[in-house]
Design brief:
Length: about 675
């Protein structure tokens, strides 16, 4: 029956391309969109007939570009994926609806590669339903259809298929047998053609990454994979969690890294863990956004992603939130046994991509204040549902990062340097960090001040220790869940934590912030600003949408001191400070996380440092609400903001008897026993 529906939809779409029944502007939209759909259907036939395996690489490369061609930056000014173009040609109201529809239809591309015919059909039928609404309204009433009716078509599409979407998403994350990507990774990687099997956009960046990894000595590739998988294993040990109860590990990475991922999968299998790999979401049926969890290829156009991040604003209401939450519950109940043995994600991040100058477009869809509130409520409730089935106190994770060729001509040397950074002597760092922790544990609070134009002036309150010899506030973090080594961190007391956090330039979740300024009062964000846009309102909206994630405020969930001066020095040497991922950047100075603590949903697990002391600073006044108020205790976000050493004037501890002990002065560690941390800084 699905095959028949597909054939009928395809036939109707082919007919539509020669019709002329609508006003010219709308007819052009539907004809061009139909041409795109015909191309995608042709790709589906090509794949089913074995074309991927039989065609030369040159043809695969050509076909790949054609699928993404109209949203590439050089073509975006004429694309119906661009909300500005749609508004100019179709009017603002119809433009927003039809632009969002076009964005949804682009989610067909990965589906044809994964042979998900039913999901293909429902998108083709949605397009035909919208087109039919225009034809019917003009034929019967000689007017365009009402925008309400068009929105209702999309609303019921999202609502009707929410349950199926939730189930498929969880199956991809929890079931090893959903192994589309895994089959490719564990297959033949000797030729670049395999990169085109995924259905993601492939550029020279992915190809050069694959070539570089394929050229590395076997022992280097093994070291990379071993560091990654051992970090995952050790994360369970340091978190006092039993990895033997787990059977699956979710792998997230960027295409081109398959030679390393293949070895990592072998390591995980030896631990008794089967891999799951799923693609990042790109559909209204999921919560798509700017961030790309899962596995992914190149971003054809980051402005396109930014323009469509709030497309759900077209239909989002309280009823739809309830439908989604019910679908999520049903999905987890269906896969509850698999959820119980899911170990958590193992993430390979990349960095080096050229930053994009993103522009907030008034023509794009944006969540209303009420929808922002609903979005926050959904994420909070969804987090609680997930934690019932995937218990935070039982799962773990790990993250490691590597550069991509876009970082510049020095890519091979930078890549080698990052391998060295990722495999630093964690025992040495453990000892030096313990000296820092011993001093920090004497304190009531910590003072952090900037220099060289940095306006930071913060007072961070610490938890009181009732048993000095057995308790500690700070975790001694080495190469486990967050690779590379190099930080000590705590969950601050919110009451009394106050002041200004300022960074001159920082990238958070791939978005740039210039002169980011956050003001805290009793540990909560009280004000914020940046200088990205001329208008203060635009700057605040940019931060609220992408750092606060629509919350009115967020707590200071983490305070940490990064100790990886080797990474800082390498970044300065190669002038890539602005390209470092937060994973490495957070180790190159003190950092402050807005949102949940590092122990979110796992606060009651007893955790110890290597010296045997128990870490007691796992809660704050917000997370403690979980005992009475459940979901309202969590914000389901955690964004690290780092002050680099060259902007750091002072970190000092104020002890219980008001003694002030400096830890860092003018960007250098001044505690005895930490001299080694200053050696990489001598290049200045």
């Amino acid at each position: 029956m699905i095959e028949e529906r597909f054939s009928l939809a395809k036939e109707r779409i082919d007919e539509l391309k020669s019709e002329a029944v609508l006003p010219a502007a709308f007819q052009e939209y539907f004809v061009k969109t139909a041409a795109f759909l015909s191309m995608v259907c042709g790709e589906y036939a090509f794949i089913r007939e074995g074309g991927l395996k039989e065609s030369p690489v040159k043809e695969l490369r050509h076909r790949n570009r054609k699928l993404y061609e109209d949203i590439l930056p050089e073509n975006y000014g004429e694309s119906y994926a661009n909300p500005q173009v749609c508004a100019e040609r179709l009017g603002e109201e119809y433009g927003q609806i039809l632009c969002a529809l076009y964005g949804e239809l682009r989610s067909l591309i990965p589906l044809v590669f994964e042979n998900r015919l039913e999901e293909i059909v429902i998108r083709l039928e949605l397009f035909l339903e919208i087109y039919g609404s225009f034809c019917m309204s003009l034929k019967e009433d000689e007017i365009l259809p009402g925008s309400k009716a068009l929105k209702e078509s999309i609303y019921w599409y999202v609502s009707d298929y929410a349950r199926d979407a939730a189930g498929r998403r969880l199956a991809d994350m929890l079931l090893p047998e959903s192994d589309f990507a895994c089959r490719i990774v564990e297959g033949d990687l000797s030729d670049e053609r395999y990169l085109y099997y995924f259905g993601e956009y492939i550029t020279d960046n992915e190809i050069k990454t694959w070539k570089h990894l394929s050229s590395l000595p076997e022992d280097t590739l093994k070291k990379m994979a071993d560091t990654y998988t051992e970090g995952y294993r050790i994360g369970f040990i340091t978190g006092n969690k039993d990895i033997s109860k787990k059977k699956t590990v979710e792998i997230r990475y960027s295409l081109g890294f398959e030679p390393m991922i293949k070895k990592a999968i072998g390591n995980f299998r030896a631990m008794g863990l089967l891999p799951t790999l799923y693609r990042y979401p790109s559909s209204l049926l999921y919560l798509k956004g700017v961030n790309r969890p899962g596995y992914f290829g190149a971003a054809p156009n980051k402005q396109y992603d930014f323009d469509h991040k709030d497309d759900l604003a077209l239909v989002l209401d309280k009823k739809l939130v309830q439908v989604r939450l019910e679908a999520l519950k049903e999905g987890y109940e269906q896969y509850k046994d698999q959820a119980a043995v899911y170990g958590g994600p193992a993430v390979v991040e990349t960095f080096g991509e050229q930053p994009a100058e993103l522009r907030e477009k008034p023509e794009a869809l944006h969540l209303s204040k009420e929808q922002q509130k609903l979005s926050v409520e959904y994420r909070s409730a969804a987090g609680e549902i997930q934690n019932r089935y995937i218990k935070g106190e039982e799962r773990s994770f790990t993250i490691i990062a590597f550069p991509t060729p876009e970082i510049g001509e020095a890519f091979p040397e930078i890549f080698d340097e990052v391998i060295r950074i990722n495999t630093l002597d964690y025992k040495l760092y453990q000892q030096m960090q313990q000296r820092i922790i011993d001093i920090l544990d004497l304190g009531k609070y910590v003072i952090v001040k900037g220099m060289n134009g940095n306006k930071t002036n913060l007072k961070v309150m610490l938890h009181p220790l009732s048993e000095d010899g057995r308790q500690t506030n700070f975790e001694n973090c080495v190469a486990d869940v967050n690779i590379p080594v190099g930080e000590v961190f705590t969950s601050p007391v919110l009451a009394g934590t106050e002041g200004i956090l300022h960074v001159s330039r920082v990238y958070l979740n791939e978005l740039e912030y210039r002169n980011l300024m956050v003001t805290f009062k009793d540990g909560m964000v009280a004000d914020y600003d940046c200088s990205n846009f001329e208008s203060p309102e635009e700057n605040r909206k940019y931060i609220r949408d992408n750092v606060l994630f629509h919350h009115e405020s967020l707590p200071l969930g983490e305070f940490a001191i990064g100790t990886n001066t080797t990474a800082f020095a390498a970044a300065r040497k190669y002038q890539i400070e602005d390209k470092l991922p937060i994973l490495i950047a957070e180790k190159t100075g003190p950092h402050f996380a807005l949102g949940d603590t590092c122990y979110s949903h796992g606060e009651d697990v007893r955790v110890y440092n290597p010296d045997g002391k128990e870490i007691i600073a796992k809660d704050n006044e917000c997370s403690l609400k979980r005992k009475e108020q459940g979901a309202s205790a969590y914000f389901n976000c955690h964004t690290d903001i780092t002050i680099p050493y060259n902007e750091l004037g002072e970190i000092s501890v104020v002890t219980r008897d008001e003694q002030v002990i400096p830890v860092i002065e003018e960007g250098r560690f001044v505690l005895p026993g930490c001299e080694e941390l200053n050696r990489p800084l001598n290049f200045r």
